[in-house]
């Protein structure tokens, strides 16, 4: 079988499919900086980060939480964070009693505070329990941040969310790759702001 650089599974094609979504994230640099600034202000006021997602994004949620609590970069300050997907007993107990769609929102109603940050991750933007949790967080006064894919789905269409970032690809593998890059950037810039309190004035975000 002949092989061509234009073959859909060629190395060139594999990288080309990833180029536009990554460049789109770079185009959102100011919005990302604004989200990080808002997150840093919440941490500065004693808030915590609460992360959640289904399936693959559930492991991303745990990844985000551990990086804030136990920074891989030596010398960076640990910041309070937890993943709502990490406790199997709670997740399955709530899902059994109140339903899967409320599994994250129910937990937020118990542990969420207005100073906190809610970060919801959904590959296609249509996860009902992630959307409901973000709505609950919004109603509690929490800062809401969403990572979605495709066209953003129902989550991007939800009113009142503070920051929504869309990995513009329908390939779930590429969406996940962009999400990993996005939350690593969030982690890094949050520390830039948090470690320099003079940058935490409301008007400073770039």
From TrEMBL:
<keyword id="KW-0413">Isomerase</keyword>
<dbReference type="GO" id="GO:1901135">
    <property type="term" value="P:carbohydrate derivative metabolic process"/>
</dbReference>
<feature type="domain" description="SIS">
    <location>
        <begin position="39"/>
        <end position="199"/>
    </location>
</feature>
<dbReference type="GO" id="GO:0097367">
    <property type="term" value="F:carbohydrate derivative binding"/>
</dbReference>
<dbReference type="Pfam" id="PF13580">
    <property type="entry name" value="SIS_2"/>
</dbReference>
<protein>
    <submittedName>
        <fullName>Phosphoheptose isomerase 1 (EC)</fullName>
        <ecNumber>5.3.1.-</ecNumber>
    </submittedName>
</protein>
<dbReference type="GO" id="GO:0016853">
    <property type="term" value="F:isomerase activity"/>
</dbReference>
<dbReference type="InterPro" id="IPR001347">
    <property type="entry name" value="SIS_dom"/>
</dbReference>
<dbReference type="InterPro" id="IPR035461">
    <property type="entry name" value="GmhA/DiaA"/>
</dbReference>
<dbReference type="InterPro" id="IPR050099">
    <property type="entry name" value="SIS_GmhA/DiaA_subfam"/>
</dbReference>
<dbReference type="InterPro" id="IPR046348">
    <property type="entry name" value="SIS_dom_sf"/>
</dbReference>
